[in-house]
Design brief:
Rossmann fold; 5-stranded parallel β-sheet; GMP Synthetase, Chain A, domain 3
Length: 530
């Protein structure tokens, strides 16, 4: 008899082998896997008492807490679907997602309740709102009291199938409304097995939850770290101070984060030089980091840098950039450059870069094509959006919208999103490449490059730059710097200095806002909305 690949098995394994281990740390609270399992069972009983049935959607609006972590397993035992919400959206976004997903129950952190209050009366399917850490919201149901009132006996699980949808994750839309990505137990389960292998996850690991768990389930971390009995540190707010404090206090060995968060850690380290004695692996995804980041992380911090690539629709990870054994004799500078690329396919994923005719691009590091993938992780589809599903998945391949090259060693290098490629005088320019050069300037803290119109060339690169404290740089300085480092057609033609760049909750820079801001400031609203 085949055993279905369903996610509650991961907590079962942790309970069986690591039940007494103090493993979950949240603020000043510590839980063993036994205690976590008891809380999960209480949650499941409470959900059943509230009328939740298999297939119902349960929404969570919460930072990285034990309440968020236990939500996955408590919801899954009923065969219900977890709908994790991005904590940086606006009330009207939550209104759309909650109504579109037809969520029946909403768990929300008290700090975030003000985002729900304005739209509470317009929710059409939410029957109950339960508040984590409730103190002042007297009319709301408090989670602690609610959970304590439930029985803690083992929950008799629903009959789960590995092809059942378990997660409904809404991608942030730049035009129109966000789309709900349906991931199944099988998607997440097999993704976990592949990723835990490539990241070398073990029960010795101490994971610091930096990346939000709502972000593709924090890259599956509630699944494969739990399955391996690793310790997990829940971090409500990912400031550099809090991250380094946790590294020292808990002997953290691995973290997942966006390049912008890593940059903030490098800046903090420059000024404070905290002493971290243990080996640390830092897993980076999002936009491609400048190779200079890799050098600084491995030389200055002494941490192992691991670049990965994926998207919500593929559960998410598809590639990894660790150096393969037969390439370790390459010059160190070339290895660092290689580590900054998206890399090569993980086990269970087939990833290609194709031209407009569907043919594989040359492995010359120059020809640009679109990244497509097919794997065990590719989504079931978009919730209630068959048209978008058919556009994304063609002939079994997920079309990512990311443009890339492939080097002679078979490493994929993301050069841009389709919409972010700059076409100047008929030449394709990678905004990521230009940004990497700007980061080499000693006075640049953060940089983002977009296309702006040019009378002669059609488009040219324009930079939005945050300057390091106590640095002084002029627009002409940066234009000259980029012209020294790049072919002239790739060099920036203008700079807008800003105090900060717009980012998603995971730390990814939102270029669509920069494009809109540029056009609004130039009196042509909406030219680059996409």
């Amino acid at each position: 008899m085949n055993v279905p690949l369903v996610l509650p098995q991961f907590l079962d394994r942790a309970l069986s082998l690591y039940g007494k281990k103090k493993a979950i740390f949240c603020d000043d609270r510590v839980f063993t896997y036994e205690e976590l399992n008891d809380r999960v069972n209480r949650l499941s009983h409470g959900l059943k008492e509230a009328g939740i049935k298999k297939g119902d959607r349960i929404a969570y609006l919460a930072p990285n807490t034990v309440e968020m972590l236990e939500g996955f397993y408590g919801v899954f035992q009923l065969g219900a679907v977890m709908v994790p919400l991005n904590i940086r959206l606006k009330p009207e976004d939550y209104l759309f997602i909650l109504n579109h997903s037809e969520s029946k129950l909403l768990f929300v952190d008290e700090e975030l309740f003000q985002l729900i209050a304005p739209i509470q009366e317009q929710l059409t399917t939410v029957e109950q709102i339960i508040v984590h850490y409730k103190h002042d919201l007297t009319e709301a149901i408090g989670y602690d009291e609610w959970l304590a009132s439930q029985i803690e006996s083992p929950y008799s699980r629903e009959n789960l199938d590995e092809d059942d949808v378990c997660s409904l994750l809404y991608t942030s839309g730049t035009t129109g409304n966000p789309k709900g990505v349906m991931l199944t137990h099988r998607n997440n389960y097999l993704h976990a097995l592949s990723t835990m292998h490539h990241l070398r996850v073990s029960d010795d690991d101490v994971l610091l939850h930096v990346l939000p768990m709502f972000h593709v389930n924090g890259w599956g971390s509630p699944f494969y770290y739990t399955a391996n009995g690793a310790s997990q540190i829940c971090l409500r707010k990912a400031s550099p101070e809090a991250i380094f404090a946790a590294l020292e206090q808990h002997n953290v060995s691995i973290m997942h984060m966006a390049p912008t968060v890593l940059n903030s850690l490098l800046q903090y380290y420059e000024k404070n030089v905290p002493e971290i004695k243990q080996d640390v692996r830092v897993v980076i995804a999002g936009s491609a980091p400048p190779p200079a980041f890799v050098t600084r992380v491995e030389k200055e911090l002494g941490w192992e840098f691991i670049q990965v690539y994926g998207m919500t629709e593929s559960s998410p990870l598809s590639t990894i950039s660790t150096i393969r054994s037969h390439l370790k004799d390459l010059p160190l500078k070339e290895q660092y450059r290689m580590k900054a690329k998206a890399g090569y396919s993980m086990i269970g994923s087939e990833v290609r870069v194709i031209n407009e005719y569907g043919e594989a691009v040359k492995h010359d590091g120059k020809e640009i094509g679109e990244v497509v993938t097919r794997s065990h992780g590719v989504m079931k589809g978009y919730w209630k959006n068959e048209q978008a599903t058919m556009e994304a998945i063609q002939n079994g391949w997920l079309h990512t919208g990311d443009m890339a090259t492939v080097d002679p060693y078979g490493n994929i290098d993301i050069v841009d999103r389709k919409k972010d490629v700059i076409i100047s005088g008929g030449e394709n320019i990678s905004s990521i490449e230009v940004e990497g050069v700007l980061y080499e300037h000693p006075g640049v803290l953060e940089a983002a490059v977009i296309a702006v119109p040019h009378e002669k060339w059609g488009e040219t690169p324009h930079a939005y730059v945050v300057i390091k404290q106590n640095s002084q740089i002029s627009e002409s300085d940066l234009v000259s710097f980029s012209r020294e480092k790049l072919a002239h057609f790739k060099a920036i033609t203008g700079v807008t200095f800003v105090s900060e760049l717009p980012k998603t909750a995971s730390g990814k820079i939102q270029k669509v806002h920069l494009r809109n801001e540029y056009w609004e400031s130039h009196g042509k609203s909406g030219r680059f909305v996409n």
